[in-house]
Amino acid sequence: VDLFNVQRASFLIYDPKIKKLRVATSRGLSPKVAASLQITPGEGISGYVFNTSRPLLISQLKGLKKKIPSVHPRRSYQTSSFVSIPVIVSPFQIGEETLGVLNLTDKRDGSKFTSNELQILNLMATQAASLFRIRDLFETVQSQEGLKRELEIVHQIQDRLIPKTFPQIGDLEVFGKCQLSPRGGGDYLDLVKMKDRLRGVIADVSGHHVGSAITMSAFRSIFRSLVYDPTTPGFLLKVMRWGMHEDLLKLQQFISGWIFEYFPSGQLTVSGAGHPPLLHYRASLKKWDSIESGHLPLGLEDDSRPQNKKIILEKNDLLLMYTDGLFDPRMRETGFDKQRLLDWIEKHLDLTSEKLTEQLFDEVTPHHRALAYPDDIALFLLRRKK
Length: 386
Fold this sequence. Notes:
Shape: elongated
Number of strands: 16
Oligomer: single chain
Number of helices: 8
Structural class: alpha+beta
Mean pLDDT: 85
Strand order of the largest sheet: 3-2-1-6-5-4
Helix content: 25-40%
Distance between the termini: 89 Å
Radius of gyration: 34 Å
């Protein structure tokens, strides 16, 4: 305004929410006019300049409508000369984006705008575009930082709901661990000691986002409210299916998992729902057995009767429960697969369940972190001592 000695100046920026140009800042316009002014691209002088991305230097208003039919010069102009400049940003010199329009009108001395002034205004508009782009990027970063912080809070809450120590019974060693995705996820494990047995669960909610974490918390609440009920794992799983079915349908999610209970005699009863198979290392035979789940995941229709599979853990036997992130197929590209892990476990059977679990995660983690978007991993390791 001072440099060009004008009475009016305005910077109109395109607002994608309303799909119109609106006043970002101005001088010489009344606050009421500035707040209400909205221009559709292609409408009037500003709309024309925005659409064409070409500067407009007007010496005489007469005859302007013949050149640009959509333009209707306002009678409020005090002089016949004005200039309108597109504010264009070219990120990394790749393509162009018009952010808005810079308008100057009514020189105080009544003189006309010159081509030299047009060049100076073009340079200023380019600088303004860069500043506005930096502002937009800064606001985007701030928004992402806020989202990142919210994800960290969700991650912390979810992590606190997962036990870090586990009850023992008889000669059974039990240890579990859950490594959560930075994006939030739905892997979960839990173990509760009852009078004469242990009862536990390992589960995986579909998706890798905050919604999965929320559903996992609801699953945990229902499991904890039912865990002491004197019934079988199969019936408990059936009740949980009934309790969560409607919500899972609305959220378009599903939950796979195993519920199990262990008695000091070595008897293990399990009931699964669409979860990866249990891996049972039979020490006396030096071989692995695979136990498949008998039901569909929670959230899918399954009216079959509750199934309870019996497994006997002999001395030195080991049972591995896990979520699908442990054997993510993408890790094969780095040389990691199920057989490699099972071979590794057999070479480290002298370790306790806790140390074996911790070192197992150390073995998996480099391959897991190499993935672009790593999944959650939850794992339970049950081992009957000598």
